Amino acid sequence: xxxxxxxxxxxxxxxxxxxxxxxxxxxxxxxxxxxxxxxxxxxxxxxxxxxxxxxxxxxxxxxxxxxxxxxxxx
Length: 74
Prior knowledge:
The chain is an alpha+beta fold. The chain is built from 3 helices and 5 strands, in the order E-E-E-H-H-H-E-E.
């Protein structure tokens, strides 16, 4: 498996190949105003997910709770 590293931060992928928004947020500096939780509730994000869902069998977004969890996106 290829490992993506951004700013010395490993970016995890789930079994479907989606990237972890939490890891990307950490690599980008981790500003509280840019947390994945705030991003995923925006209308723009919801519209993008809706559009991507039309062209894929798997959901473009998956949230996993827990210590090793996170929000994974296509």
